[in-house]
Amino acid sequence: MTSNPLPVNSSRLGGCTLTGAISVTSHVRDAVTIIHGPKGCSHHNVSLLHASWLDNDHALLPELVSTGLSETEVIFGGEELLRQAIRHASGHEVRAIFVLSTCIVDTIGDDVVAVCSEEYGVPVIPVPTAGFLGGTFHDGVNNALIALAATAMPCQKDRGINIIGEMNLEYEVEENYAEIARLLSLLGLNVNLRFVHDVTYDQFARLGAAQLNILRSPALVPVGEYLKERFGTPYLPSFPHGLSGTLSFIRSVAGACGIDGQAAASGECRRQEELIAGFADLSHAPASLEPTHAGTDEILVAEELAAALDLAAGTPENNARLPVSAAIGTAGTRRMLHRWRRAIHA
Amino acid sequence: MKQIALYGKGGIGKSTTSANLSAALSGRGLSVLQIGCDPKRDSTRMLMQGRFIPTVMDLVRVRGEAAISLPDVVFTGFNGIRCVEAGGPEPGVGCAGRGIIATFQILEKFGALEGDVIVYDVLGDVVCGGFAMPMREGYAQEIYLVTSGELMSLYAANNICKAVQRLASRAKSKCRLGGVICNAKGQPREEELVAEFARRVNSAMIQYIPRDHIVQQAEVNRQTVIEYSPGSAQAEYYRSLAQRIMENTRMTIPTPLEIDDLESLAREFI
What we know:
The structure holds two protein chains of two kinds.
Chain A: H1 17-25, E1 31-36, H2 39-55, E2 64-66, H3 71-76, H4 79-90, E3 96-101, H5 103-108, H6 112-116, E4 124-127, H7 137-149, E5 161-164, H8 173-186, E6 191-195, E7 212-215, H9 221-231, E8 235-236, H10 242-257, H11 262-278, E9 287-290, H12 296-309, E10 320-323, H13 329-344
Parallel strand pairs in A: 1-2, 1-3, 3-4, 5-6, 5-7, 7-8, 9-10
Helix pairs in contact in A: 1-7, 7-9, 8-13, 10-11, 10-12, 10-13
Chain B: E1 2-8, H1 14-27, E2 32-37, H2 56-63, H3 70-73, E3 75-76, E4 82-85, H4 96-110, E5 117-122, E6 142-147, H5 151-168, E7 176-183, H6 190-200, E8 205-209, H7 214-220, H8 225-228, H9 233-247, H10 259-268
Parallel strand pairs in B: 1-5, 1-6, 2-4, 2-5, 6-7, 7-8
Antiparallel strand pairs in B: 3-4
Helix pairs in contact in B: 1-9, 5-10
């Protein structure tokens, strides 16, 4: 049996370290990312970013520069080529330059950190990203976030909240962010910084000002720990999933910020009850979950939702397959319910 | 066309042996090409009156591959021997092994790999795939190990046996071990030890070359022994080596020793 995963299920977590880092650095609007390696490494990532951004109605080309490493540099060393590329980029109006390495560059032993630490007039930030060392897409994200965080200095705290490590390539990145911002607003809290999503380099100066960091997923815990050590900011390890997950998220944020979240949680609970009531037409429908591309948390959330709707077990002849995906917050749960309704009434 | 490669520990005398072998081969009326496959680029010096010839990699670096041609990389030295140095990056940067691969591709493109005999003089150890290039399909089919009776030198030779064994197991590979050349340091029972080592790795000692001060005398005069003192006993050893290599038909897949066996072998001859 073949299954056709929804776009929201497309997991890129196992991919190349380089791609993960680019998904972060390319979101700094006034910076350039130099990929030190053969041009193909850049080409494929430009294509991927461009396609993902277009899907999110973001019609820009990422600011990526390849050093275009050739066999000559592989034999004689590529440091001079990198130096030239950084000098060239620094001559344009850029606020910072990120330098990402590739497999071949680490194989021949180019000292990327040493070249980056020379004087160019703008900050030049190396991010180790050679994929063959066994890192995943997520290691690339983490490496880039930590390299960026290291450029920010501790500062006076205020009440704002940081959003850490949004999945910039996921299709619902903006919807998920909007849901977190909505939940925070129920507690009278605002977002301090989206680290890193569509920001400018100077905004990183405010990284340490937040009273709480909210990580997109537990894979970012190393980043959360780093920020906690550097800025003393506590963190929550994940965006909320599903109905009860969203309610406990509200309580956790309130607890971490020392405010009373009871009213906000009760209000959200009523909203969820209305939501379920609005999908009463699905109750007792013969259906089962299709969890092929889902993680454990996502399956638990879907099972909770199926129980709330009182879905019936289907027969082989009469059984709707319900797609399971990440349901971030109450809004994400609503979108999944709409997909379920389409599957059941199909 | 006969293609042979000399491998052995750094400093063991590969370049001296290669240059004298090439000189002796040319004395038999053969058209010889010697290719130095070591970034140190000193393989062919004694055939070129002490001159460090420009390397293939130097020319690629300075002019670019498109701007070089066959006469730029092949230099004619003593007795018409054609000399090539692969060269490579500055020490400590880049990838010398890839430089060897690129050199072979360039020489192939120019059709430079021709003549009666090609002698490849290779870096001390097969540290990566690039330095195994001369052993690959289409290049040297006969490998000669240069070693003294010193344990570290035998250890390096044994390691190269591993590389030859691995390459020989490939379907189309014609790479075989042709023999062991004992370039003596003057230890007692050295000839016996090296001969026994050669036997145990399923090969044979093809030539014993004693230590002789005339080699140093020839080198300070920037010549091979064959050129500097053709009537000397040492020159006769090199001519004998050349003759035995040309007549050699015993090509084997080596059986490298375990390190313990190698050490106990060395102990037997102390």
